[in-house]
Amino acid sequence: MTYAFPIPRVAVSGPKRAVNCQFPRDGSIWGQMTILLKQFFQLLKLLNSETGLNQIAAGIACGWVLGFSPLFSLQGLLILLVIFFFRVQGGAAFASAALFAILKLILAPAFDGLGQIVLEIKALEGVFTALYQAPIIPYTQFNSSVVMGAGVFGFMTAPAIFIISRILITKYRTQVVARFKSTRAWKVVQATSLFKWYVKYEQHFG
In 3D, which of 92, 97, 91 has the Cα closest to residue 71? Predict the structure, then answer.
C-alpha cells in the first residue's frame, strides 16, 4: 500500500512500489538464475579467501539492508556510500544483496503488514507529513508500506546479521574448509587438470 500524507494532499496512484527485484527484466529465467548463481559463487569464493572477517561480515550486513531496499532509493545510495568509503567488502555486499532480494520477494506480504502498522501510528503522522514534504526524503519511498516494513526490519536486524555472519564465517573457515582440505577427495581435485586450469584462470582473470 502507498500512502499520501496531508499538507499538501497528494494522490498517489498506480501499483505498489513494493518489490524491487535486482534482476534483469528480459523475461529469461535462465538469465536470472545465471546472475543469482554467479553472485552465490562469488560470495563462496570470498568466504574461502583470506579477506578480513569483519570486512566480509560488514559486507553481508550492508547487503542485507541493500537487498531489502528499492533499487533506486536514497537509502540504497547511502548504503553504497558506506560500502565504498568504509572498510566493507563490496563483493560480499553485492553478492548477498542479490540473494537477500529474493528473500524480500518471499517476505513482501509480511513487510506490507509491518509497514502499514508503522505508517498508521497516529503519534508519527506529523513526522511523516513533514518528511513527505521534504525535498529529498520522499526518494526513500517510505510512504510505501512494503518499503517501510522492509526498511524497518532490515535496519533493525542489520547488527544481528553482522554478528551472526561473523560467527558463521569463523566456523565455516575453521571447521568446514579446514576439514575438507584435509580429505583425500580434495587432494584428488587438486591433482586434476581442470583444477589447475581454474587456478591459472583465477591468477590472470580472477
Answer: 97
What the block records as the C-alpha cell of 172 is 565455516
pLDDT tens digit sequence for 119-131: 999 998 899 899 8
For residue 80, give Cα distances in angstroms to 77, 143, 151.
5, 22, 15
Q: What string of H, E and C letters represents the secondary structure of 32-54?
A: HHHHHHHHHHHHHHHHCCCCCHH
Q: How many angstroms separate the Cα of 61 from the Cα of each of 64, 89, 183?
A: 5, 10, 32
Give CA–CA dist 67/20, Å, rounded. Answer: 9
Q: What is the CA radius of gyration of the chain?
A: 21
CA angle 91, 155, 112 (to 5 degrees): 110
102-114 pLDDT tens trace: 999 999 999 999 9
Please report how the helices 53-67 and 74-85 are oriented relative to each other, as an axis angle in degrees rounded to 10. 170
CA distances from 89 to 20, 34, 63, 71 (A): 23, 22, 10, 19
Asked whether 2 and 12 are in contact (CB, 8 A), the reply is yes
Whose cell is 575453521? That residue is 174
Using alpha carbons, list the distances in angstroms from residue 186 to 178, 179, 203.
11, 10, 20
